[in-house]
Amino acid sequence: MPDFNERLIKHVEHVKSVGPHCSTEETTKQALILPFLNLLDFNPFDPTKVKAEYGADMPGIKNGERVDYALFSEGHPVMFIEAKPFVEKLTNHTGQLARYFNATPGVAIAAITNGQEWRFFTDLKNPNVMDSSPFLAVDLTSLSDSDAEQLARFRHDNFHPDKLKSFAEERVYLGIFQAVIENCLRDPDADFVRFVATRANFAPKLTGKVIETITPIVKQSVADAISRMVVSGLSAPIPPVAAVAPVVEAEFPAPAICGDQVDPNNSKIVTTDTERRILSIIQTMLEGQVSEDEIVGKDTESYYTVLYQGKVNRWLVRYVGDRAKPLIYFNGNLSDQQKDQVVKRGLEFGPGNSFVLPKPEYLMKLSDFVNESLMYCQEDSNFKRESKKELEQ
Questions:
Q1: Contact yes or no for 71/81 (Cβ under 8 A)
Q2: Is the pLDDT of residue 339 over 90?
Q3: What is the pLDDT of residue 1?
Q4: From start to end of 264-361, where are the E strands?
Q5: CA dihedral 329, 334, 340, 344 (to 10 degrees)
Q6: Closest C-alpha among 254, 204, 199, 196 to residue 222
Q7: CA distance 101 to 242
Q8: CB-CB contact of 299 with 312 (8 Å)
Q9: Closest by Cα among 104, 109, 206 to 160
Q10: What is the mean pLDDT of residues 211-221?
Q11: Which residues form the Restriction endonuclease type I HsdR N-terminal domain (predicted)?
């Protein structure tokens, strides 16, 4: 392989040097194509390996058809090559090559070339019918390491029709998959966003509104992940899931009121934009499960709380924001397993049964906790004892 690569590099320099002087098809054959066949160990001076003007008639349709070159292995033609002048583009020249290929069932590969670009075809869609698109196209003047590895598969000693067919199929699928992946990464659709959120254990219920909300976050995460891989390389260790996607500003509905709002009856109660944003986020997250007016906010001197049906004992979250690390509390009991999940999502514990909430958007990492808190508040049996006490009073 090292020897092949060195010879290939020299041939590339040769193509760059003499190619512009090859104005005719015959000159292109002699100066560029035959040396390349020799590079592949198909000696153009050995008729057991290479035959020029090889007959490839299609019985009953057209006689006298001759392909420029037929490559042989073990006494059988395995590859046809149609040559064009160096100065000619290869587009719209495959019809003739297809006739040659279709007329000779034993041939596995067909190629068309102008000495600089090589396009390789096979019959993946229909047996003995050449595909309309090449499974491999290589421009020798912009050769990559991957191109060199792929061209090495066509060397005489490596030329195995079945393996090349498998290689062609792999190339086709790679092209299709790459196009799909690129489209998903450039413009993530709802299915892709749902897939990412599910793999990240984001939430048990991903409503259409939630998908719409987190789409910009996923898109930013994709861009960051690609940038990280470009810088560190694909072989670098994959960071924990919680560290992969940083939280960015989400497109939640903006609160109708902006700025701090002081309670007219108690100047010590000040409702901030952050607190109202928490309410807006939770209302959005629970859309479709409860009506928006069932989720209300209530501020106190010590904390801000989001209530279910306005009942002070049925609070979904309590938020304490007047500290260096704001805290969020959830109603109901949290298991050790749930607490472990929080750590995996890149969040940290606060005192008691709380979590540190640097930004309101971090609630999106805790959407399952919000849902469980709602279910806890909706279960009347969780509050029977309190109701009995209230009646006795």
A1: yes
A2: no
A3: 61
A4: 266-271, 295-299, 304-308, 311-320, 327-330, 354-356
A5: -40
A6: 196
A7: 54
A8: no
A9: 109
A10: 81
A11: 24-128
Residue 393 is predicted with a pLDDT of 46
Q: Write the single-letter amino acid at 114.
A: N
Alpha carbon distances (Å) from 333 to 224, 329, 336, 338, 345: 36, 11, 10, 10, 19
Check if the beta carbon of residue 250 is closer than 8 Å to that of residue 216. yes
Do strands 76-83 and 109-113 pair parallel, antiparallel, or not at all (unpaired)? parallel
Residue pointed to by tokens 């861009």: 223
Distance CA 251, CA 214 (A): 8
CA 353 vs. chain centroid, Å, equals 38
> In terms of DSSP H, where are the helices of 93-207?
94-102, 145-152, 161-186, 190-199
What is the mean predicted confidence (pLDDT) over 77-100? Answer: 89
End-to-end Cα distance, the chain: 90
Phi, psi of 237 (to 5 degrees): -60, 145
- What are the angstrom distances between the C-alpha of 55 and each of 64, 80, 100, 127, 131? 7, 11, 8, 21, 21
The string of pLDDT tens digits covering residues 179-191 is 888 888 888 888 8
**Nearest Cα to Cα of residue 46 among 38, 35, 54:** 38
Contact between residue 87 and residue 23 where contact means Cβ atoms under 8 Å apart: yes
Question: Residue 305 corresponds to which tokens in the numbers above?
Answer: 């709380």
Give residue-wise pLDDT tens across range 239-249.
Answer: 554 433 444 44
Gap between the Cα atoms of 91 and 313, Å rounded: 74
Whether the full predicted model's pTM is greater than 0.70, yes or no, is no
CB of 305 closer than 8 Å to CB of 390: no
Is residue 118 pLDDT above 90, yes or no? yes
Check if the beta carbon of residue 259 is closer than 8 Å to that of residue 362: no
Query: Both tokens of residue 57?
Result: 């008639």
Identify whether the C-beta of residue 292 lies closer than 8 Å to the C-beta of residue 284. Answer: no
